[in-house]
């Protein structure tokens, strides 16, 4: 049986129901239960989940209450899966806060797990037994993909590009961030920097040496001075970010000597297409830039931030060096083809959307993933 907490999105819940049906049945929890009978590990597990929580309470009382809630959720999940050793824990994302506690409780009870998340490819979803984003089961290193593709030319070909059909820029929730015409981009060479949502899990957990989006923007201001003559950075804020980064971008522009241009109006993929490369912490647009054959610089942790696929800038000095050599940025096209073919054929599951707006997954594909889910 698949056991999973209810989400607020109809599509997410329908995807859960489809996965559970394929696996032979499921139990949807209206909420994660609570148990006050703690384990020796409860305090440490709660502290870890609390540190990853997206919304951090203000004040000691608020922190104490949320810590107690997460601890009780961890303890309940661990006791539940210990009593039901054949059940599988599933949740959306599962990296932070209460969901982290739920999945960690299942892990410590010896249960199998499934992590679900949107995929950066249209019509696909992530279903992973280990985690999502930088904590996913996606293999690291070229050797795996070379072995996987050996003897099958189609696995090193261009078929993966079809997975990007229909890839469009995210609709904006902000009046000052749009997806407009590319007429004003001009001919000057630039690197495109799509910013991310400041407080999402990608920033909280995998931002790397920059530490945060603010730290990344400040680093851009310093490193941009190393760009070749006539080059600039073209930066766009995330269309779903609730808070504008205009003050931070103004400071970075000044630090760069005017070599940063903020363009919140032009379509994001039009800027990718016109750029000489993409710079990101770990945005999905870094992976999506592969469809435009653009070199990518990644400063944070991501499953696709592998040498050869992208330029990994693991320090401020490395970022500055990458900018200084902007005209020579490159990537291994063969590695990218095999990597993307594996994602397309083996990793991401296709989603069918019903006329009612529900998401349905192929039962055979779900069962294949479930069969790989390890027991702790």
Automatic annotation (TrEMBL):
<dbReference type="Pfam" id="PF05159">
    <property type="entry name" value="Capsule_synth"/>
</dbReference>
<dbReference type="InterPro" id="IPR007833">
    <property type="entry name" value="Capsule_polysaccharide_synth"/>
</dbReference>
<protein>
    <submittedName>
        <fullName>Polysaccharide synthesis/modification protein</fullName>
    </submittedName>
</protein>
<dbReference type="GO" id="GO:0000271">
    <property type="term" value="P:polysaccharide biosynthetic process"/>
</dbReference>
<dbReference type="GO" id="GO:0015774">
    <property type="term" value="P:polysaccharide transport"/>
</dbReference>
């Amino acid at each position: 049986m698949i056991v999973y907490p209810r989400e607020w999105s109809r599509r997410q819940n329908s995807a859960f129901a489809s996965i559970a049906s394929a696996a032979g049945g499921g139990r949807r929890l209206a909420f994660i239960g609570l148990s006050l009978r703690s384990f020796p590990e409860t305090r440490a597990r709660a502290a870890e989940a609390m540190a990853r929580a997206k919304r951090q309470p203000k004040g000691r009382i608020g922190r104490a209450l949320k810590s107690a809630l997460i601890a009780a959720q961890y303890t309940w999940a661990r006791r539940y899966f210990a009593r039901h050793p054949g059940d599988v824990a599933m949740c959306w994302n599962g990296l932070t806060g209460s969901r982290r506690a739920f999945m960690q409780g299942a892990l410590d009870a010896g249960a199998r797990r499934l992590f679900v998340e949107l995929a950066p490819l249209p019509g696909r979803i992530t279903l992973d037994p280990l985690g999502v984003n930088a904590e996913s089961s996606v293999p690291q290193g070229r050797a795996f993909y070379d072995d996987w593709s050996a003897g099958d030319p189609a696995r090193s070909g261009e078929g993966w590009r079809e997975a990007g059909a229909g890839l469009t820029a995210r609709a904006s929730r902000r009046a000052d961030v749009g997806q407009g015409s590319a007429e004003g981009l001009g001919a000057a060479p630039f690197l495109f920097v799509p910013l991310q949502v400041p407080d999402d899990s990608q920033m909280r957990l995998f931002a790397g040496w920059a530490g945060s989006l603010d730290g990344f923007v400040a680093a851009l201001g310093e490193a941009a001075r190393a760009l070749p003559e006539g080059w600039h950075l073209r930066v766009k804020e995330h269309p779903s970010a609730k808070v504008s980064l205009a003050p931070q971008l103004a400071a970075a522009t000044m630090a760069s000597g005017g070599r940063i241009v903020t363009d919140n109006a032009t379509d994001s993929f039009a800027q990718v297409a016109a750029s000489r490369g993409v710079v990101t912490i770990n945005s999905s647009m870094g992976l999506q830039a592969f469809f435009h054959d653009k070199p990518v610089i990644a400063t944070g942790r991501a499953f696709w931030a592998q040498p050869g696929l992208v330029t990994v800038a693991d320090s401020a000095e490395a970022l500055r060096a990458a900018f200084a050599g902007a005209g020579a940025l490159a990537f291994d096209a063969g590695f990218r083809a095999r990597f993307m073919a594996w994602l397309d054929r083996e990793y991401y599951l296709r989603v069918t959307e019903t006329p009612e707006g529900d998401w349905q997954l192929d039962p055979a594909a779900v069962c294949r993933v479930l069969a790989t889910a390890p027991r702790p």
